[in-house]
Design brief:
There is one protein chain. It is built from two helices and 13 strands. It is rod-shaped and about 125 Å long. It is α+β, with helices and mostly antiparallel strands. The protein starts with a strand and ends with a helix. The strands form three sheets. A six-stranded mixed β-sheet has the order 1-4-6-7-8-9. A four-stranded antiparallel β-sheet has the order 10-11-12-13, with no helix packed on it. 33% of the residues lie in helices and 31% in strands.
């Protein structure tokens, strides 16, 4: 049900104006039971679900990343329930929650993480990165997935190698046993021939 979008244009109606308002969040989350058919934008009036959670990375030195005016937009025009602002330059994280039509700053819980109960999600900074916990478990980032998959692949290759070596050892042992049985059979046959020759003499 949770659908995430990155740098997708949101279009919303502005009362008294013909053209819609526009905003492009860094990321936003929508909860909807069916995949949303989007064609390059998110027109609020035509989509059966609204953004529940918006995340923006703020950089004062980059005009494109200076979102001072967006708080009022998400609060009033879009009424987004959760708005997360991350300032990477000084590693600050602020989560705003919509209450009675106004954003109030959320406070972290005992774990020093901010909760988004509707998503069973928590958010906090770890080593300067915005990280998420789902139902108490830290969600891996792509680099960790890659490292985990590489480790799993290496473990699988090593296990396959060990299995192959064990099969080779078993086959070699079986060949050795076959050779010993053949040699014993040859020796027994030779002994039987010698006994028979002695008996005949």
């Amino acid at each position: 049900d949770i659908q995430c979008f990155g740098e997708l244009l949101i279009q919303y109606p502005i009362p008294g104006k013909r053209l819609p308002g526009r905003v492009v969040p860094d990321h936003f989350v929508v909860v909807h039971p069916e995949p949303l058919a989007l064609d390059g934008s998110f027109p609020i009036e035509l989509i059966p679900a609204r953004p529940l959670f918006v995340l923006e990375y703020v950089s004062k030195g980059n005009p494109r990343k200076d979102y001072d005016g967006n708080l009022a937009l998400y609060e009033q025009a879009l009424a987004v329930p959760y708005y997360l602002l991350f300032y990477p330059d000084n590693e600050e994280l602020t989560l705003f929650r919509l209450a009675d039509g106004k954003y109030v700053a959320a406070h972290p819980g005992d774990s020093e993480r901010y909760a988004v109960p509707e998503l069973e999600l928590e958010v906090a900074l770890v080593d300067g990165w915005v990280r998420y916990w789902f139902r108490g478990e830290l969600v891996a980032i792509p680099a960790e997935w890659s490292a985990s998959m590489a480790a799993e692949r290496a473990a699988r290759v090593a296990a396959e190698q060990r299995a192959s070596e064990a099969e080779q050892r078993a086959a070699a042992a079986e060949r050795e046993r076959d050779a010993e049985r053949a040699a014993r059979a040859t020796l027994e046959a030779e002994l039987a021939r010698l006994r028979a020759a002695q008996g005949g003499a």
